[in-house]
Specification:
Elements (H helix, E strand, L loop, with lengths): L1 E5 L4 H12 L6 E5 L8 E4 L2 E4 L3 H6 L4 E4 L3 H13 L3 E4 L11 E2 L2 H4 L9 E3 L3 H17 L1 E10 L6 H12 L29 H14 L5 E8 L6 E9 L5 H9 L4 E3 L11 H4 L5 E9 L5 E8 L3 H17 L4
Parallel strand pairs: 1-2, 1-5, 5-6, 6-8, 7-8, 9-10, 12-13
Antiparallel strand pairs: 3-4, 9-11, 11-14, 13-14
Helix pairs in contact: 1-10, 5-7, 5-10
Length: about 325
Amino acid sequence: MNVAIIGVTGLVGQMFLKILEERNFPIENLIPVASEQSVNKIIKFKNKDYTIVNIKKAIDLKPGLALFSAGSEISLKWAPQFEKAGCRVIDNSSAWRMDPRKKLIVPEINAKTLTSEDYIIANPNCSTIQMLVPLWPLHLKYKIKRIVVSTYQSVTGTGKEAINQMENERTGNVGKMVYPHLIDRNCLPHCDVFTKNGYTKEEMKLMNETQKIFNDTNVMVTATAVRVPVSGGHSEAVNIEFEKDFKLQEIRDILKIAPGVIIKDDPENNVYPMPLYENGKDEVFVGRIRRDFSQPNCLNLWIVADNLRKGAATNAVQIAEYLTKEKYL
């Protein structure tokens, strides 16, 4: 099939190319799309050269699938036009996530809700994806009442300019400031913009998207999202309160066979997930598995994943693979 990548020059767009090639996704023709200043530039995919086109030209080339990672404004304007052309869209922005008419998909959790009628499919927020992959099988067993999550998020979640800011600060160079403060040797409790209720949009995404993906408005979530001077992936300290009590060995047994989850939990030997080592991997890594003794039925987990892979590109490609398997593509 013809596959368009909207925002191909960005961090996620570049990761789309990498993941599609690694997973050998069936592509007859690649249609790379970027802003006007990148049009006519050449990119390589599977040792073949492709010319970047603008988004209008991409529709004329009749893709069967479009992977969007160019921001909400582009998605809101152009995704419906791709849909009208008979193209399925998997969108990595926040544009469609909370639209009740659109599915918000983590394949390990709710891919089976997709039907042939779904033409615009939302890819969840990176922090939400990695938190829910291991929590879903626990929710099925013990029923989650409440989640308290603190995130430690990589600068790659902001984009190339954020990486540049951090590298400039480390080398003493003066450059563009993406963040309102220095990021190197610092932590910013400020991911995305603040809303009127005092939470940032990133924190609200964790709350709202969890309920939609789980299809359960009784799961309460509170979040604090923090940007840290790391480039390898996102980390999360997650406290979960269940309706039912649990045994720690049961938790381990469930996570051991959970799709997309790898346990790294041997603190006596200093083994636990870290973004430095989970960078470049597609799985979600879980460690520091321990009971919270301050409250009944509560569990603490430390969760790490590569935010550009499972938190973005890999999740989207897995959705596309499901659509292909079900012959919706």
